[in-house]
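Lay summary. Proteins are chains of building blocks that fold into shapes, and those shapes determine what they do. In this project we predict the shape from the chain. Here is one chain we studied, written as its sequence of building blocks.
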Amino acid sequence: MYDWLRGWVLHALRVPHDPEPPFGAPGSIRVFRAGRNYFTLRLIGWSVTQLLVAGGIVFWGVVLFEVENSARELKQTRAAPPPLTRENFNETIRSITAQPPASEKKAQRKRTNIGGWTGFKRGLVEIALRLPNWAFPLIWFVKVSGVALFVGQIPLTYMMRRLDYELRWYIVTDRSLRIRTGLVRLQESTMSFANLQQVEVKQGPLQRLLGLADVHVQSAGGAGDTNLEHGQTGDSLHTGVFHSVDNATEIRDLILERLRHFRQPGLGDPDDHHDLAVPTVPAASGPSDALGAAQELLAEARALRMALS
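And here is the predicted shape, written in a compact code that computers can read:
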């Protein structure tokens, strides 16, 4: 099931095949991945988001149910008032003419100034009373559709988180490195050791807790002209990040070692050093040299004849 869904997502997003290794010796290729705890961290964030959304759906479902019931009861009460008799008529007259005590006035004033959750709910009931009869079925249709959409997005968003973790490529050779990240927004960068300027490890508090770190690799990039236009001086650095790896020290030491080896005298990019071969002219040979060569050739021919016979 996972392989089928993975293939479908990759095909739908038109994600290209796995990246080719950058320039370098085939035996020097090293591939690194993001740490397992990075996926765990992303999964925790995804789970918290899903729980919050599910809680919101349940909350508003209960509120709509209570508001709908209260609105229907009030509509029925207002639509069918009790029949008028002598007893309730006299009671109504006494309630109008009678002066309520001070404690009841204070209670009425408190009820008038009710706010918070009760006031919010009462306001929703008042709004529901003004809605037409077909409004609540439409609201519940939208609600049920939202629940179905929420349930349907769970495997898809989980797949997106997992693929974002699986499709992080950090490839290092003896002459260059290549970084590819992203799923919806794909980003791939290649850096040659000839332009590499700096390698550093950065680690935040949460990464330190999970045993993760970032390796920042900086090289001289093409943005230097832009900075000069804005009055800035110095080289502009293009940065590649090995994000949330659990072997940051190993990656840093490997890059520094290969960079040191790359910059040793006589090494480097073979395209930058082409030694032109100068054709040599054989020296003139005298008669004695020609006689000696003929004798050696004759001896080899005899030995070959004897071996074949």
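What the prediction tells us: The chain is about 55% helix and 15% strand.
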